[in-house]
Write a structure and sequence with these properties.
Elements (H helix, E strand, L loop, with lengths): L1 E2 L11 H7 L16 H11 L6 E4 L1 H13 L5 E4 L6 H8 L3 E4 L3 E3 L2 E3 L2 H8 L4 E6 L12 H9 L5 E5 L3 H4 L13 E6 L12 E4 L2 H10 L7 H12 L2 H22 L5 E2 L6 E5 L4 H10 L2 E2 L12 E5 L3 H15 L4
């Protein structure tokens, strides 16, 4: 079964990096790792262009989301999300007992965009925490401009704004430069995508030192395991392979989008990520089920009415893409 539904990387970390650290003398698994993963945090600070005291480390992006909500819960009454987006934001808010306010994205031409006026109105109504995934999962584009993000950060009363940059390496841009001016901004990052480490579960939050202290109070003392600290630190000392991975995926993304556009009734949406969302001429659930029968798993969104005829496809290797396109062509009964 070809898995193109989880936005994983089709590539692995270069073996020469792992071979340097995965030796018996380095694997002291009988000992607890250093609390807070200080070396990993310091190395990621260099990579992100921030100070070490502005970095909190978590067991993957999901834990970063959950712990951020818990840390900020005393100062907010509700969480604002912009569906269709990553469902973990709403789930974390619900688990924390906070109200979830949905400000649906608007469809403008061939892309989804934030309803900026509605977003600003809801964010300023009472103390709020706003999640913005930039670029957005699953739509693949920047749903909020940096100018509108600046307006959101300065509306009164000031909301907490969490910008999830899980896919920023593929988009070629970050809002990390806004951290110094906006203490209410938190940026989430992951090593699951461009770093090819989804199985390791390493994520980060970038914020002011005061906010990082609050985040540290929510996490478990040893939330980053010894192996994650070891491998994560190793790849951050030699992250040059990430640029090669990103370049290959961006080129493969172009191939996938062009191939989808050539299929009858299929419209790929512009993407700045490692996946492509596309409209299909039949209900998405039926198309996804038919593709699974063809040996290819893609993502559909049965709880999102706006995506009733959309499927999301992870960018894989050239062979993966060709196999996926052939499976979709057969499912649609068309001719390439």
């Amino acid at each position: 079964m070809l898995s193109l539904h989880l936005n994983e990387s089709p590539y692995r970390v270069p073996s020469h990096i792992l071979s340097r650290v995965l030796s018996p003398e380095n694997l002291a698994l009988n000992r607890y790792p250093p609390p807070g993963a200080p070396r990993l945090r310091g190395l990621y600070a260099v990579y992100a262009g921030v100070r070490p005291e502005q970095v909190a480390a978590f067991n993957g992006g999901d834990e970063a989301i959950n712990m951020t909500v818990l840390a900020l819960r005393p100062s907010v009454r509700r969480v604002v999300v912009m569906p269709p987006t990553f469902p973990e934001y709403s789930r974390a808010a619900a688990l924390a007992g906070l109200e979830v306010v949905r400000v649906p994205l608007k469809v403008e031409g061939n892309a989804f965009r934030a309803d900026t006026q509605a977003l600003l109105r809801e964010a300023s109504r009472e103390p709020s925490l706003v999640f913005a995934c930039l670029p957005n999962n699953p739509t693949g584009n920047r749903v909020l401009s940096e100018e509108d993000l600046g307006r959101l950060l300065t509306v009164r009363p000031r909301p907490w704004v969490v910008v999830d940059e899980a896919y920023w390496e593929f988009a070629g841009g970050s809002v990390v430069h806004l951290l110094e001016r906006h203490p209410n901004l938190i940026i989430l990052r992951t090593m699951s995508k461009a770093f090819c480490l989804a199985g390791l579960r390493v994520g980060f939050a970038l914020a002011s030192p005061e906010v990082v202290e609050r985040l540290d109070e929510t996490r478990q003392p040893f939330n980053i395991g010894a192996l994650a600290e070891l491998i994560g630190s190793a790849v951050l000392t030699d992250p040059s392979y990430v640029k090669d991975v990103v370049a290959r995926i961006v080129e493969a993304r172009r191939r996938l989008s062009e191939g989808l556009a050539a299929l009858p009734g299929v419209t790929p949406l512009p993407s700045l990520t490692n996946f492509v969302l596309c409209r299909v001429p039949h209900p998405a659930a039926e198309v996804a089920a038919a593709m699974k029968d063809q040996g290819v798993r893609v993502r559909h969104y049965p709880r999102e009415p706006a995506l009733a005829r959309h499927i999301r496809i992870t960018v894989g290797t050239v062979r993966d893409i060709d196999r996926c396109l052939e499976a979709l062509r057969r499912c649609l009964g068309g001719r390439a």
